[in-house]
Amino acid sequence: MAEEPVNVNEFQELARQALPKMYYDYYTGGAEDQHTLKENVEAFSRIIIRPRILVDVSKIDMSTTILGHKTSAPIMIAPTAMHKLAHHEGEVATARGAAACDIIMGLSYMSTCTVEEVASSCNAVRFFQMYVYKRRDITALMVHRAEKNGFGAIILTADTPRLGRREADIKNKMIAPQLKNFEGLISTEYVSDKGSNIEALAAVTFDASLCWKDIEWLKSITKLPILIKGVLTSEDAIKAIEAGVAGIIVSNHGARQLDYAPATISVLEEVVHAVQGKVPVFFDGGVRRGTDIFKALALGAKAVLIGRAVIYGLAAKGEVGVKQVIQMLRDELELTMALSGCCSVEDITRSHVITEKERFICRM
Ligand SMILES: Cc1cc2nc3c(=O)[nH]c(=O)nc-3n(C[C@H](O)[C@H](O)[C@H](O)COP(=O)(O)O)c2cc1C
Ligand SMILES: CC(C)CC(=O)C(=O)O
Q1: What whole-number distance in Å separates Cα of residue 224 and Cα of residue 25?
Q2: Whose CA is nearest to atom 9 of ligand 2?
Q3: Whose C-alpha lies nearest to ligand 1, atom 14?
Q4: CA distances to 44, 48, 84, 329 from 100, in Å
Q5: CA–CA separation, 113 and 179 (whole Å)
Q6: What is the Cα–Cα distance from 105 to 268, expressed in whole angstroms?
Q7: Among 94, 119, 135, 303, whose CB has the most other CB atoms within 10 angstroms?
Q8: pTM score over 0.80
């Protein structure tokens, strides 16, 4: 029998073995030179933890509340597209993994299972991620379907007016299937002479004119709280609050959009300072270890979203793999908390980490 994976990187290797190259490249890849892709992970290694000793850590409580929903840990599943390319059960398996671990799942607008299938598969708290199509009637319908099916929030992804240039997908001539949510509404199968039909799909369907004033439109069609995903600057954090969002997700889309955008962990604090506690700030990008989650919490995130790591679990072992990856990250976070002298997520403070910039200033 093959050895059991002991960390997320080993799950990635299992996913590589399980998937056709075209899909593995789609899931792992980033934009252009993949500079930001590497940085998202490496920037974590430049942040050092300042552990405190002789604290009673015999009981650790990782639970927290996200937009009023109690969860077992400050961990959510990031919305990622087309899970059936990773495993035949698709997003239903992912949702069940989330439910088993008592964490919130973000469902992608570009899912391969329908909103209804995911909603009826388990009792996970679900947030619905949306893109805005030029055909606003279709987007409004999707939001209503999410609302009707008990989703707890809308995640508006704001960093994708056009799709980033993912060169592996271009070379592989990556093909997206017809997405079941849109059957009878719009075709999601576009053939492109540029290579990747996902790029063509986004070019034809996504509304590149989307801007801040459209949050008013979104608020007019839903009562659900809105999280805005893709904030990387204090300027946009302030605009998001002015627009009345319920939360902000610091994200560079897993480095798949603008290459040479900053590593998300390097700008989290800028956003947190701008927000001044008015709304919760969430974080994603490059999280592969419990220590990464601890660092993001110390720098002010309310919770982190996990993208690729969950897909690796799904590709390797379906629902069981999703569960194992989340459990692994939860266990690692718990151990990090214990070894740093933190009994609850509230105990994790800014003084528990030191950034590269601070170390540099100390040396001067
Ligand atoms: C294969 C893949 C598909 C993605 N699809 C979506 C999507 O449909 N909607 C979205 O808002 N973000 C999407 N993302 C971005 C994730 O929500 C998240 O920001 C990113 O994966 C976090 O980085 P990580 O993968 O390093 O954890 C996708 C990311 C990946 C890797
Ligand atoms: C189908 C794509 C638009 C999904 C996506 O956001 C991504 O691949 O990063």
Answers
A1: 35
A2: 256
A3: 80
A4: 28, 32, 20, 14
A5: 8
A6: 22
A7: 94
A8: yes
Tokens 């798949």, residue? Answer: 256
- Which ligand 1 atom lies nearest to the CA of residue 287? 27
* C-alpha 114 – ligand 1 centre gap (Å): 18
Q: Is 157 in the pocket of ligand 1 (CB under 6 A)?
A: yes
pLDDT in tens, 130-152: 999 999 999 999 999 999 999 99
| pLDDT (tens digit per residue) in 77-102 | 999 999 999 999 999 999 999 999 99
In sequence order, the 6+-apart residues with CB closer than 8 A to the CB of 363 are none
Determine whether 253 is an active site residue.
yes
Catalytic residue among 83, 87, 253, 352: 253
Tokens of 306: 């996990």
Instruction: Give the residues surrounding ligand 2 with Cβ less than 6 Å away.
Output: 81, 110, 163, 176, 198, 202, 253, 256
**Residue whose C-alpha is closest to residue 327's, from 105, 126, 104, 100:** 100
Q: What is the pLDDT of residues 234-292, one digit of tens each?
A: 999 999 999 999 999 999 999 999 999 999 999 999 999 999 999 999 999 999 999 99
Collapsing DSSP to helix, strand or coil, 138 comes out as helix
Could you give the angle at the alpha carbon of 283 between the alpha carbons of 58 and 322, nearest 5°?
70
Question: What ipTM, to 2 d.p.?
Answer: 0.99
